[in-house]
Amino acid sequence: MNKTTHWWWIRHAPVDSGGIIYGDNDVDCDCSDPRLFRQVAERLPRDAVWVTSHLRRTRQTAEAFASHAGLELAEPHVDPRLAEQGFGDWQGLTHDQLRQRDEFDWHRFWITPARTRPPGGESFADLMERVRYAMNDLLQEHAGKDIICVAHGGTIRAALGVALGLEPERALRFAVDNCSLTRMDHFSDTAEPPHDISAEDSWRVSLVNFPPQS
Fold it and tell me: Which domains does the chain carry?
């Protein structure tokens, strides 16, 4: 029996960071502009499992989308593995401050951004692996359903990389704007979901970075 799981990925609302690198710091987002939510909210399924990371900006964004879609948001499933990439000691610094403090590591990061780990942080390749495990567990639990994941730009790039079997360097090429929608489907030919998501799985990506307003 064919079973299709529909994934609806949404990046959180804008963050006023003041120009600093915030990564997986727990900061608030700005949900005050209704135009950022209405167009995408109209596309969201009514009977879906909601998932967020543990960072409050994803919960704030989920609540805003549910409100504009006329949905009653049940307590979402929280998965810390869907958090943004952690930039370790670089978080809290501006790009200029970082360049002045640690020019060698900063230069190396921009040459190989997918594989370089900031001090005390993780690489994008590390992020892809934890997102892969999170997606696998969510698929085990909610196969055949609609899953709305409100997450982060890096997380959504990682999910696209997992679905398309991409190397981390290629997955970084996707643009993922705040409040944009990315859609993908997972197909299974058996009644039971697979025990591991792999490049051999059947995926369809139908929408990437659908804009919140036009």
Answer: 3-86+124-210 (3.40.50.1240)
